[in-house]
Design a protein that fits this description.
homotetramer; about 140 residues; alpha+beta; five-stranded antiparallel β-sheet; 3 helices; 5 strands; about 25% helix
Chain lengths: ~140, ~140, ~140, ~140
Amino acid sequence: MSVGLVVEEQIRVRYAETDALGVVYYANHFVWFEVGRVSFLREIGLDFATAEREGISFVVAEATCRYLAPAHFDERLIVRTWIEDIGQRSLTLSYQIVNHDTGQTIATGKTIQVFIDIGNHETTNIPVKARELFERALSD
Amino acid sequence: MSVGLVVEEQIRVRYAETDALGVVYYANHFVWFEVGRVSFLREIGLDFATAEREGISFVVAEATCRYLAPAHFDERLIVRTWIEDIGQRSLTLSYQIVNHDTGQTIATGKTIQVFIDIGNHETTNIPVKARELFERALSD
Amino acid sequence: MSVGLVVEEQIRVRYAETDALGVVYYANHFVWFEVGRVSFLREIGLDFATAEREGISFVVAEATCRYLAPAHFDERLIVRTWIEDIGQRSLTLSYQIVNHDTGQTIATGKTIQVFIDIGNHETTNIPVKARELFERALSD
Amino acid sequence: MSVGLVVEEQIRVRYAETDALGVVYYANHFVWFEVGRVSFLREIGLDFATAEREGISFVVAEATCRYLAPAHFDERLIVRTWIEDIGQRSLTLSYQIVNHDTGQTIATGKTIQVFIDIGNHETTNIPVKARELFERALSD
């Protein structure tokens, strides 16, 4: 499978992220996806400030997580992020969270981001420059 | 569409739940799904304490949210929860979050819960009594 | 002790708010204080939108919580909020969180809010109208 | 001022940690204090697993934060943690959060931990071995 550029980010599980079952609460995996997403976009050189000055933003339109194994306090994890699909007005990112020490996969997931014209809050095409960065990352 | 029993729970958006975009951060919708889920299970009479004494628990195996409109600080929302599907070892719940005042749908989602034998951490059949409660709710 | 107006807000403990010790994680009490604070300010008629149009905002400058008893999943709590002190440029609010069913005190706390001129980000006097509302609440 | 061992931990501000004011929500500083606390205790060699096998645990009895400057998304921060005081049954830790790049102090704070006998849930003396570790850290 060719998935292009995969960016890895390290996470250490915080006590705040656990719940009464003794494992990480299921909403926190989406926070970790965000950490991976930010790291991925920084890595490919996407400049939010520039994009926003040009009147373009993007929002998460859909998010999914499959939980394969529990994560526990103080474990070191790796979040892997890559591009799954580049649409006309959307970008799909995929994630895999693995335990840094055992290699076990904790979770996999996906988020679909939709591009928005800040002026009228309507969806809009991916800006040309951003598209180039995404395509380059996908062909890496 | 017959979805059986739909349980509604009120939420008021907390400042803690917003992010720098001025809207509710995308992971918090899963927290609200949990609030709806707990309310649903309480409503149908599922007794966790009893279930756990019998050595059965369940965990979320998959969660999805589609974001249709942003939610803002102090808005009153309603979380609607119902059973989507009853499997051999799993239960799928569906959610709809609407703005209490405008009726606008904020998000829809789904979680798949899998039943676990606390003794050996393996998946197990839905306990008979829990299944009866689920089937009654679905035929309501 | 005369503390003036005390506003009560109900909370039900969410699973998301628990941690691996089986009790509510210690940062979440501050989220509950915020829920009480918002409820208090709404009750006394403080209109943030108006204040912000007049160029005044306020931020938390200090926050303290004393933890007296643990809170658990699904417990119903009451957050009580009242004014502790009205300064020249600051407002001190006090909080008490009690278990709704047993009356046991879970936590007490305090936050100091400082008023800010949105234009220059400097601290500023409490606006006259807001001061009137605070003083009325304190003498209730 | 002699504060003994100071342990530093790096944090990168997550989008999840911001609020609608565009800055980090005030409860999250306590999560960062916890990250600093865990790092500090790991550094001095405190072995929770051992302590808990000996029937001793500890809980936060009081927490305070003073907010000196706002923190923003994606900023890199340093959490500094040191021992403020060693009591008979309690340990007071102090924290300072600074901006990694500008050196500006974001917040300072304090938490008081109380030792608990897991058997009867009463407060208890700091175990001898833990006390030795704390005193060594304080005299560093």
